[in-house]
Amino acid sequence: MAIEQHKDVESGYLQQPFIQPEEAAACEEVGSDKSVENGSIGMVFLSTLVAVCGSFTFGTCVGYSAPTQAAIRADLNLSLAEFSMFGSLVTIGAMLGAITSGRITDFIGRKGAMRISTGFCITGWLAVFFSKGSYSLDMGRFFTGYGIGVISYVVPVYIAEIAPKNLRGGLATTNQLLIVTGGSVSFLLGSVINWRELALAGLVPCICLLVGLCFIPESPRWLAKVGREKEFQLALSRLRGKHADISDEAAEILDYIETLESLPKTKLLDLLQSKYVRSVVIGVGLMACQQSVGINGIGFYTAEIFVAAGLSSGKAGTIAYACIQIPFTLSGAILMDKSGRRPLVMVSAAGTFLGCLIAGIAFFLKDQNLLLEWVPILAVAGVLIYIAAFSIGLGSVPWVIMSEIFPLHLKGTAGSLVVLVAWLGAWVVSYTFNFLMSWSSPGTLFLYAGCSLLTILFVAKLVPETKGKTLEEIQACLSSQR
């Protein structure tokens, strides 16, 4: 997690883009949008829809452990430590997936990487479904984790590379939209079906992705990069429409690729070169900020938070959590190319600060035995504000910017590093959350609130606006600001 249900997509044509282009603020316009104005973008929407089936798989995997904890522990006689290992293995697998994602994506293409990752996810879900003990359960969780580690990189990169610049932000945000939709579906289904059936349901988006990949083109930029010029022209023509004029866009991409060909192959240490440091700091910093506000702790243990706040059951709050993510993530997708990336992240971080502050106050009151009747109300309100705010910006914008800021020859190496940081942060937060809450519930939430304020400062000082620019223009902007 598409920006869905637009009737014109069915016929393959739009009279006007549903997200209007904006004039670039920092760099002079060098590209042409003629191919988009006069052509079909139906294939762009179809390709995005297929790709985000992988994002939906991502969401179902991340959301699987929360509603199934009690049932799995009872059925397989697992201790809390064994189930905690099961839950954390998804992030460990994802970290390994992140390390290899860039190289896999550069070597076999964006579609090939999606096929590989889906194969791991299918293997993992089947292992979970047939589990009789902790070993096969853990292996299944690790395999699904590896698969979504690759997916978390390749899907936003693929969408960014196929989308016209005036739609890129909104379409890329569908990655996060389908992630939260998948998580919400897992939360809701997990309340009505057993854990084995929920694992089986996880196969559905995997199969949809494998079938859909047969009908969509490879990334034109990747095809150009590996020298398959005829296929590059064909893919770009399919994406922009049979009768669209793609000459300007194709020439711009080929010129950029020709420049890249003169550069040596990159290694991890190459990211420390002065000309790339700004992009690396932005990508790594945004992912660190995204995780430091505590989303994986609050998200994984929502039900326990509500129960700890005094609710008799966490189920109602968990369902509300699941339902609130989707409309706010969709709102973020619509706002992405209207308000811009920077304002959206800063408003989102301000909202997570407010939500953590309110929830922290609730637990502080509980610890002091003050206004106890208000504690559950404040806790639920704080968590829901937090989730709404995170969903509208912090959940999606870092992934969009990550897919935009690195030059093509660095995307494999730098993308792997950035996704690794994201999953390492996810593991740290999810692993330490229960320990921190045992130490001090209000202190933990106030800590996340402080990280939200630091996020606002980081974005205001270092992150550029990428709205309305081609990927090549973004590189020109970053180079000029060194």
UniProtKB/TrEMBL annotation:
<protein>
    <recommendedName>
        <fullName>Major facilitator superfamily (MFS) profile domain-containing protein</fullName>
    </recommendedName>
</protein>
<keyword id="KW-0762">Sugar transport</keyword>
<feature type="transmembrane region" description="Helical">
    <location>
        <begin position="143"/>
        <end position="163"/>
    </location>
</feature>
<feature type="transmembrane region" description="Helical">
    <location>
        <begin position="44"/>
        <end position="66"/>
    </location>
</feature>
<keyword id="KW-0813">Transport</keyword>
<dbReference type="Pfam" id="PF00083">
    <property type="entry name" value="Sugar_tr"/>
</dbReference>
<feature type="transmembrane region" description="Helical">
    <location>
        <begin position="78"/>
        <end position="100"/>
    </location>
</feature>
<feature type="domain" description="Major facilitator superfamily (MFS) profile">
    <location>
        <begin position="47"/>
        <end position="467"/>
    </location>
</feature>
<feature type="transmembrane region" description="Helical">
    <location>
        <begin position="344"/>
        <end position="365"/>
    </location>
</feature>
<dbReference type="InterPro" id="IPR020846">
    <property type="entry name" value="MFS_dom"/>
</dbReference>
<dbReference type="InterPro" id="IPR050549">
    <property type="entry name" value="MFS_Trehalose_Transporter"/>
</dbReference>
<dbReference type="GO" id="GO:0016020">
    <property type="term" value="C:membrane"/>
</dbReference>
<dbReference type="GO" id="GO:0051119">
    <property type="term" value="F:sugar transmembrane transporter activity"/>
</dbReference>
<feature type="transmembrane region" description="Helical">
    <location>
        <begin position="112"/>
        <end position="131"/>
    </location>
</feature>
<feature type="transmembrane region" description="Helical">
    <location>
        <begin position="413"/>
        <end position="433"/>
    </location>
</feature>
<keyword id="KW-0812">Transmembrane</keyword>
<dbReference type="InterPro" id="IPR036259">
    <property type="entry name" value="MFS_trans_sf"/>
</dbReference>
<feature type="transmembrane region" description="Helical">
    <location>
        <begin position="445"/>
        <end position="463"/>
    </location>
</feature>
<dbReference type="InterPro" id="IPR003663">
    <property type="entry name" value="Sugar/inositol_transpt"/>
</dbReference>
<dbReference type="InterPro" id="IPR005828">
    <property type="entry name" value="MFS_sugar_transport-like"/>
</dbReference>
<feature type="transmembrane region" description="Helical">
    <location>
        <begin position="377"/>
        <end position="401"/>
    </location>
</feature>
<dbReference type="GO" id="GO:0055085">
    <property type="term" value="P:transmembrane transport"/>
</dbReference>
<keyword id="KW-0472">Membrane</keyword>
<comment type="similarity">
    <text>Belongs to the major facilitator superfamily. Sugar transporter (TC 2.A.1.1) family.</text>
</comment>
<dbReference type="InterPro" id="IPR044775">
    <property type="entry name" value="MFS_ERD6/Tret1-like"/>
</dbReference>
<keyword id="KW-1133">Transmembrane helix</keyword>
<dbReference type="GO" id="GO:0022857">
    <property type="term" value="F:transmembrane transporter activity"/>
</dbReference>
<feature type="transmembrane region" description="Helical">
    <location>
        <begin position="199"/>
        <end position="216"/>
    </location>
</feature>
